[in-house]
Amino acid sequence: MEATAMAWTVGVVGLGLLYWFVWVMGAAEVKGKRAVNLKMGSITRDKVKDKYTQYWSFFRRPKETVSAADKVPAFVDTFYNLVTDIYEWGWGQSFHFSPSVQGSSHRDATRLHEERVAELVRAGPGQRVLDVGCGVGGPMRAIAARSGAHIVGITINEYQVARARAHNRKARLDAQCEVVCGNFLQMPFPNASFDGAYSIEATCHAPRLQDVYAEVFRVLRPGGLYVSYEWVTTPLYRAADPDHVDTIQGIERGDALPGLRAQDEIAAIAAEVGFEVLQERDLALPPAGPWWTRLKMGRIAYWRNHIVVSVLTLLRIAPKGVVEVHEMLYETARHLTRGGETGIFTPMHMILCRKPLLPAPAPSPAPEDDANQ
Ligand SMILES: C=C(CC[C@@H](C)[C@H]1CC[C@H]2C3=CC[C@H]4[C@H](C)[C@@H](O)CC[C@]4(C)[C@H]3CC[C@]12C)C(C)C
Ligand SMILES: C[S@@+](CC[C@H](N)C(=O)[O-])C[C@H]1O[C@@H](n2cnc3c(N)ncnc32)[C@H](O)[C@@H]1O
Question: Is residue 347 within 6 Å of ligand 2 at its C-beta?
Fold first, then answer.
């Protein structure tokens, strides 16, 4: 009798474990990255934890060092080696937020937010459009499929280049979507080589927005359109409120940001590099549905994911350090949610610009001084 009970217990527990294994190893969203394949980018297994410590220690330095322009691209690259697989596993192939749309899935809401970009830059067949900070190419594929345009994406992270190219091949969009590894602050493209350009939640990594906007301006043809979804603090943010400061600093630390900009700085910067600003709007404002609900609703999923990464690390399937990176992301989700709920932060301040057809007039010569007369 005892043996039968034991057999039943073992059977039930075994089946439970099998189910758990399949469920756990299966995708949390539809994405093509499984927990057993959490590699942590191009970092070798034994270096993941060190790299995480190195990333974190960056934020213990004075603010000026964190935003030191020359160091930022390397630190952003390390960040994406650490998070790319976890993002794909837990979020999907599009590394951005979107307003929630009643009655639509997250996947549809994401696609709509991306297709809006295609419409804003009037992308169409025969055009060459630049994706500034393309991640693993979720938006690029949606925009290529929707518009028929040829999309060229650039990302600083080599591992993302490999992932994006593999996804492009799988989606049979590799003839239409190209991916280049490079720094968007010094792009490897000739002047006026694109008909349009866009950046989705990527330029927030630039220490000086002027530098990336000036590069986009250079590579666009005259008359070309550029749209960007910017991460910014809103006018509700109060630098004297410790809760606000804690939320914004939490967002910066968990998302490799050298320093969030204020919403009202963006248009001035675009104009400074020569753009005409056609439209500017926070896409998170009503009637848009809250973008942060997807983060909040996933709390149970986070705990499940935490157990998954812990077990996989214990079994040495995932490298040491994954649990720490996952905890960092959990914390940043908390800060992002708070930023959304209080309204002090938006990840979708949209700005639409055009490169003028005629170059700006040269400044008039200074009046001659008396000595020359
Ligand atoms: C634009 C940027 C990235 C935005 C988002 C795609 C990511 C920001 C925070 C990320 C996540 C937080 C919690 C993770 C969770 C703990 C894990 O179990 C599964 C993945 C997360 C949901 C993860 C997914 C991507 C984010 C939402 C920045 C970097 C400029
Ligand atoms: C949050 S992800 C967004 C990716 C993509 N736009 C999307 O929505 O899926 C930010 C992207 O910007 C890229 N990035 C950040 N700094 C960069 C730089 N200096 N040069 C090129 N790419 C950069 C990152 O590598 C990453 O691909």
Answer: no
